[in-house]
TrEMBL record:
The keyword Signal applies. InterPro entries: DUF4333. Residues 1-25 form the signal peptide. This is DUF4333 domain-containing protein. It comes from the Bacteria. The lineage of its organism: Bacteria, Bacillati, Actinomycetota, Actinomycetes, Mycobacteriales. The keyword Signal applies.
Length: 250
């Protein structure tokens, strides 16, 4: 049995890139005093390396000094343009005398992700996005995800943001549609009413249904004295449309 749900038109499975290049992997900095890199020196070093790689930043702002101890980290906000900023994590990989070596991995802060999702959806769907509120930022690790509430024309819809690929400091992610729990319950009751000729009393699902093929949840349907569990599985996602199959749970 197949059901279809169409969300408010915002677009789905949208790809975006967090910018800069791979040229900053495996960098070293010579310190003159102590075994740490001051945030001012780190900002200058990152800025110079990015410029050399063809990505001259408008600003680089590091939160703290980088302590010269393997595994120590700090974050630096890199602004390439008004629409393009990211917040890589700087990690010490080696300390050899006065030389501190570090790697950088991509990441987006909460504010950067919200701005990126807003711009991406507006461009892809030709809509004006009122607001975007995400649960947090996005770390540069494939499979990492967070949720964002997107409001368009006063209507708020949930979206899942998933990191799909990392290439150096390039961070690629998809923005997926989400059917919220109440939407799934209502849709299932509608489908069962059409199939059975009468609407069951209630449906209670285990959670939201993310618009990714293969994702599944369980819903418990009550009709008079009878109770039946149904397994719902996403079968197709096409733009804003989510198709799912439902059948009695084993």
């Amino acid at each position: 049995m197949l059901s279809t749900m169409v969300l408010p038109r915002l677009g789905a499975a949208l790809a975006a890139a967090g910018l800069a290049g791979a040229a900053l992997a495996g960098c070293s900095f010579n310190v003159s005093t102590g075994v740490s890199v001051s945030k001012t020196d780190l900002e200058k070093d990152i800025s110079a390396r990015l410029e050399k790689a063809g990505q001259k930043p408008q600003t680089v702002t590091c939160k703290d000094d980088l302590q010269g101890e393997v595994g120590k980290t700090t974050r630096c906000e890199v602004v390439l343009s008004t629409d393009n900023s990211f917040e890589p994590v700087v990690t010490v990989t080696k300390v050899d005398g006065a030389t501190v070596s570090y790697d950088m991995t991509p990441a987006l802060s909460k504010a950067q992700l919200e701005k990126g999702v807003s711009g991406l959806l507006a461009k892809a769907s030709n809509v004006t996005v009122d607001s975007v509120s995400c649960d947090g930022g996005l770390e540069g690790k494939e499979g990492t995800e967070t949720h964002c509430d997107v409001t368009v024309a006063g209507v708020t819809s949930k979206r899942t943001v998933v990191v799909t690929k990392i290439e150096g400091l390039m961070l690629y992610f998809n923005v997926l549609p989400v059917l919220e729990k109440a939407q799934v319950e209502s849709s299932l009751l509608d489908q069962l009413a059409t199939q059975l000729g009468s609407r069951p009393d209630s449906a209670t699902c285990t959670g939201d249904l993310e618009g990714k093929v293969g994702n599944s949840i369980t819903c418990t349907v009550v009709a008079g004295p009878e109770t039946q569990d149904f397994a719902l599985t996403v079968s197709d996602v096409n733009g804003d449309r989510i198709d799912f199959n439902y059948k009695p749970a084993a």
